[in-house]
Specification:
74% helix; binds beta-D-glucopyranose; transport
Length: 537
């Protein structure tokens, strides 16, 4: 196999004593709630984008709608946008729309805040532990949602939104790392994907709430949509208080006794010597590093560094957030009415949740590579077909109408695309970067992952509408080009990491046909050395 020569971690579970306990499941489920705020947040972005949607919809005259909560929100906080949109609405094609950079920037500002915050989170996560960052993330998100829910002016709204961004930055940096460290190697994929599971649930719930409140008259609607984010935020904050920290982090911060106790508890056995020893070794190695940001660019960390940059960037370049953010608009342009668009958006949101379960069930058996490759091919086929059908009907002018059958088929294609993403790049975009770094650079590596993820979310959020206007149906082909590149990249350059103990990951890189030359022998831990010897024998 190309990209082969990797360590098959299939038997790695037998290396350490102990198994999966109720306690570790509990900590991971509570920890994963960190994903809820991320998901709810994407849902809130959709709310703001729906303000655009409303304008677009007006503009393409599918449905003018009444004075809803969204109009009131827009009139109150962005009066010039509202006036201009109403005046210019009539003149553009289905692909193009009035562009409000202010509103678009406001929507994306959260991702910028998250990007910056994740850097600071990496320092806190290393110095004070994973749960401290989760706690800070939950609390700032809580403050942000309260400020937004009670916003009296646009300043409160913007500051609130920056707080939300800080919350997301802290949680996305710390939670995936926490989950990967708590989980036993043979179940790391499944438990880590709890984060993405919570994200998809957060998106779905937020969307349902948005749709419910959008119909309300007066100010209550938008206040509820934005303010209800306080519920998942409170859950994460509480999690940050009650959860134990990961043994890896405790050892790294000199609390060996407590680390051993927690390790015994989460593995369900007294005999954790071997694993404990490996964690201690990893921690000793990490002590020789005083600046993780300098260390991360060293040659022996090159493969991990490249992955922490490319994986999140590729995840966003699948184009998923075009669907997440703009699905209701898209469905309206396909000719669905208000209710039907709502239903279709809920269906694709539901597919997103259910398909994530498939990933949980298969990731530790089939492995990461198999899911990446299958998901990539599935997304590619769906994107090309979607471009073909939209192009055939709307051409380059944006004028035309789908037959009912064709519209339903495109909805099916979009759902199949979402499913492909939901069991591949969605969860694995968070799992893989969190499990490939050595202890000393793990927080910094995960911060890089968040930074690149947020940067590309921001860029796509900012540029989508303009791109749609210029590239038209070719936009789907634009993203499918990236899907081809990323799928080939995985095939040749991403080694399999399933089942390999997290502190022994250097062995995976050492055994890889391309990355092997970057890894010096001294970097290998005892487990990885054994694997090397077995492979040579
Ligand atoms: C991505 C988000 C995306 C979500 C969809 C996450 O893994 O990071 O950008 O909106 O999946 O479920």
């Amino acid at each position: 196999m190309a990209g082969g020569g990797f360590v098959d971690g299939g038997g790695a579970g037998t290396q350490y004593d102990g198994g999966v306990t109720f306690f570790v499941m509990f900590t991971c489920v509570v920890g994963a709630t960190g994903g809820l705020i991320f998901g709810y947040d994407i849902g809130i972005s959709v709310y703001h984008i729906n303000l655009h949607a409303k304008l677009i919809i007006r503009l393409i005259r599918v449905n003018a709608g009444g004075v809803t909560s969204m109009d009131i929100f827009l009139k109150r906080f962005f009066p010039s946008v509202y006036r201009k949109a109403s005046a210019e609405a009539a003149y553009e094609s289905a692909y193009c729309k009035f562009n409000s950079h202010l509103l678009q920037f406001f929507t994306s500002s959260l991702y910028l805040a998250a990007l910056v915050a994740s850097f600071f989170a990496s320092v806190i996560t290393k110095k004070f532990g994973r749960k401290m960052s989760m706690f800070i993330g939950g609390l700032t998100f809580l403050i942000g949602s309260i400020m937004n829910g009670f916003a009296q002016n646009v300043i409160m709204l913007i500051i609130g939104r920056i707080f939300l961004g800080i919350g997301v930055g802290f949680c996305n940096q710390s939670v995936p790392v926490y989950l990967s460290e708590m989980a036993p190697a043979q179940l790391r994929g499944a438990l880590n994907i709890g984060f993405q599971m919570a994200t998809t649930i957060g998106i779905l719930v937020a969307n349902l709430i948005n749709y419910g409140t959008a119909k309300m008259h007066g100010h209550l609607g938008w206040r509820l949509s934005l303010g209800l984010a306080a519920i998942p935020a409170a859950m994460v904050t509480l999690g940050g208080v009650i959860l134990p920290d990961s043994p890896n982090s405790l050892i790294d911060r000199g609390q060996r006794q407590e680390a051993r106790r927690i390790l015994q508890k989460i593995r369900g056995t007294e005999n954790v010597d071997q694993e404990f020893q490996d964690l201690v070794e990893a921690s000793e190695a990490s002590k020789t590093v005083d600046n993780p940001w300098k260390n991360i660019i060293e040659r022996k960390n090159r493969p991990q560094l490249i992955m922490a940059i490319l994986i999140p960037s590729f995840q966003q370049l699948t184009g998923i957030n075009v669907i997440m953010f703009y699905a209701p608009v898209l469905f309206k342009t396909l000719g669905f009415g208000d209710e039907a668009s709502l239903m279709t958006a809920v269906i694709s949101g539901g597919v997103n949740v259910v398909a994530t379960v498939v990933s949980i069930l298969t990731v530790d058996k089939a492995g990461r590579r198999a899911l990446f490759l299958e998901g990539g091919i599935q997304m590619l086929i769906c994107q090309v077909l979607t471009a073909y059908f939209i192009g055939k009907t709307y051409g380059t002018t944006g004028e035309g109408a789908f037959s009912k059958g064709a519209a339903n088929f495109v909805v099916f294609l979009i759902c199949a695309y979402v499913a492909g993403f939901a069991w591949s790049w969605g969860p694995l975009g968070w799992l893989v970067p969190s499990e490939i770094f050595p202890l000393e650079t793990r927080p910094a590596g995960q911060a890089l992952n968040v930074m690149f993820n947020m940067t590309f979310t921001f860029i796509i959020g900012q540029c989508f509408l303009t791109m749609l206007c210029h590239m038209k149906f070719g936009l789907f082909l634009f993203f499918s080009g990236f899907v081809i590149i990323m799928t080939l990249f995985v095939y040749f350059f991403l080694p399999e990491t399933k089942g390999v103990p997290i502190e022994e990951m250097y062995g995976v890189w050492k055994a890889h046909w391309f990355w092997g030359k970057f890894i010096p022998d001294e970097a290998l831990g005892s487990y990885a050395k054994n694997i090397q010897l077995t492979e040579k024998a």
